[in-house]
Amino acid sequence: MTAPAAGSSGASSAGAATAPKPLAGQVALVTGASRGIGAALALELAGRGAHCVLVARTQGGLEETDDAIRAIGGTATLLPFNLTKDADKIDAFGPSLIERFGRLDILVHNAGTLGSLTPVAHIQPRDWTELVGVNLTATWRLIRTCDPPLRAAPAGRAVFVTTGRVQRPKPYWGPYGATKAGMEHLVRSWAMEVEGGNLRVNLFDPDVVATKLRAQAMPGEDPATIAQPADVAPALADLCMPAESRHGETVLFRGRAE
Length: 258
Prior knowledge:
Elements: E1 27-31, H1 36-47, E2 51-56, H2 59-71, E3 75-80, H3 93-101, E4 106-109, H4 125-152, E5 157-161, H5 174-193, E6 200-205, H6 212-217, H7 229-238, E7 250-252
Parallel strand pairs: 1-2, 1-4, 2-3, 4-5, 5-6, 6-7
Helix pairs in contact: 1-2, 1-7, 3-4, 4-5
């Protein structure tokens, strides 16, 4: 990778007789992979045989995800990266992945930021810039750089994690909902543009899940009463499988409705 790659986990034990894994030989790029849904998804994809390129801001969190992947015999490449401060460098992701691995089969943009829950009239420019940068601009740049290798893949898959706030607006959630709505529109447009090829593009709404973002929004909620990232990961990983036929859809994980 052109951006710094901090590590690569080892492969499974030599000589072990195992059945072929459905994503063996494939390369998956996962953002927000240091914790929560992104980390759980990376572990799930690695368990299905994919080599995961893990993107997140925190080196320590990425190393924890890599340790979990290594423990199940999977492989990963770590890419500590700030999607807002280093936004222009996202453009190098696609070409760098092709140079290093010769392919990119799966893109999951899970990284997101909540910002401040505030009246629309009180949104601060710094918060707005951060929200647009992670939730919307990074989506555009990831599509831009990953479109060629994903279209060239035998079964390219792209999934973008969204929120029910797009369809169910709520007071003080305007900045978050607006930037996610923009992301959804961009993704749906792209899905229409690639219709008819091998690439499948979908949105995934995990509903209510015990993540850091959720805790920030609902600090008094007991996380044990709602779905966990590991509960959500298999359904999200299913959208990345070669046999997946859905395209241009928003797939809702049936957790607890608000």
